[in-house]
C-alpha cells in the first residue's frame, strides 16, 4: 500500500467511525417511540440513516449515476447484491430499512446499529418466521418507510444477476405487495484494483482487509438503475422469475464473466 493509500485510510477511518457511532447514539433515544409515535420514529430513522449514507458516499468520493426515478415510499424493493456498499448507496436515495438474515442481529456493533435502524430480520431456515417478518414489513410500510430485500440471498461479483431464491419473496407474495426493483454496478478508476475485487464483497473475502482497501481507493463510480414499473404476483416463484427477468434486462455488469474467471479471490 502506498503512502497516499495509507493516508486516505488514516483520514477516512476516524471520520467514519465517529459518524457511525454518532448515528447510533442519535437512533437510540428513538427506540421507545416504536410504541408511542411509530411514524415519528420512522421519520427520524430515515433522516439519520440517509444523512449517514450520504456522508459515507461523500467521504469515499463515490460518484453516483442514477437512472430512472426511485419509487415513492412506502415501497417494497428488490436489488442485486454486490456487498455492504449497496446499503448506503440505496439508503442515500430511499427512505428505507433492509431485510437481513437473522444471524446479523447478533454481530457486534453492526448488529446493534441494524436493530436501532429498524432492520427486519428473518430466519430463512424457519418457515414459521415468515408471519412475524411479514408483520414487521407491514408496520414499516404503514409508517412511510421502504423495505429493501436482496433476493439473490448473498452478495456476488456482479458479472450477472444470480438466480433469486423464491423463499425470500414469500413475504412479498403473501402480502400482495407491488415489488419495485433496482440494479447496482460499480467501477473503479483506471490503474486501481477492479471494482469486483475492491468494492464488491463476496465469497470468502476477509471483511477487515477488504474494508481497508476500499477506504484506500481515491474514488469510484456507482450506477443505480431503478425499474419503471413494480411487479405483483401471489405466487412467489412467478414473482421471483418476473423480477429476475426485469432486473436482468436493465442490468449493467460490474465485471465481465471472462475477467471474473481470471481474477484472484482473497
Low-confidence stretches: none
What is the overall silhouette? Answer: globular
Largest sheet: 7 strands, mixed
How do the strands of the widest beta sheet line up side by side?
1-7-6-2-5-3-4
Radius of gyration of CA atoms, rounded to a whole number? 18 Å
The structure class reads alpha/beta
What is the oligomer described by this structure? single chain
Give the N-terminus to C-terminus distance in angstroms.
16 Å
In terms of DSSP E residues, the strand content is: 5-15%
| Tally of alpha and pi helices | 11
Mean pLDDT: 91
In brief:
The protein is α/β, with parallel strands linked by helices. It has helices at residues 3-27, 33-36, 38-59, 86-91, 110-116, 129-142, 170-175, 195-198, 207-216, 236-250, 257-262, and strands spanning 62-67, 76-79, 96-101, 120-122, 146-149, 179-187, 220-226. The protein is globular, with a radius of gyration of 18 Å.
Amino acid at each position: 500500500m502506498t503512502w497516499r493509500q495509507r493516508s486516505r485510510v488514516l483520514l477516512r477511518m476516524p471520520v467514519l467511525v465517529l459518524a457511525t457511532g454518532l448515528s447510533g447514539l442519535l437512533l437510540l433515544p428513538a427506540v421507545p417511540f416504536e410504541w408511542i409515535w411509530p411514524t415519528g420514529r420512522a421519520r427520524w430513522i430515515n433522516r439519520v440513516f440517509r444523512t449517514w449514507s450520504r456522508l459515507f458516499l461523500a467521504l469515499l468520493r463515490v460518484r453516483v449515476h442514477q437512472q430512472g426515478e426511485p419509487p415513492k415510499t412506502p415501497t417494497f424493493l428488490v436489488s442485486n447484491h454486490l456487498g455492504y456498499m449497496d446499503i448506503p448507496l440505496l439508503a442515500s436515495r430511499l427512505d428505507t430499512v433492509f431485510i437481513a438474515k437473522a444471524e446479523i442481529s447478533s454481530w457486534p456493533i453492526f448488529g446493534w446499529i441494524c436493530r436501532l435502524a429498524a432492520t427486519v430480520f428473518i430466519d430463512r431456515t424457519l418457515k414459521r418466521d415468515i408471519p412475524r417478518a411479514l408483520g414487521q414489513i407491514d408496520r414499516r410500510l404503514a409508517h412511510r418507510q421502504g423495505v429493501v430485500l436482496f433476493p439473490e440471498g448473498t452478495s456476488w461479483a456482479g458479472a450477472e444477476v444470480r438466480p433469486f431464491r423464491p423463499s425470500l419473496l414469500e413475504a412479498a407474495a403473501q402480502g400482495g405487495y407491488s415489488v419495485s426493483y433496482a440494479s447496482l454496478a460499480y467501477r473503479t478508476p483506471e490503474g486501481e484494483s477492479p471494482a469486483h475485487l475492491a468494492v464488491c464483497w463476496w465469497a470468502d473475502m476477509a471483511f477487515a482487509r477488504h474494508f481497508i482497501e476500499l477506504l484506500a481507493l481515491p474514488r469510484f463510480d456507482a450506477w443505480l438503475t431503478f425499474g419503471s414499473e413494480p411487479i405483483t404476483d401471489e405466487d412467489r416463484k412467478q414473482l421471483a422469475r418476473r423480477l429476475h427477468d426485469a432486473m436482468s434486462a436493465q442490468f449493467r455488469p460490474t465485471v465481465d464473466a471472462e475477467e471474473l474467471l481470471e481474477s484472484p479471490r482473497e
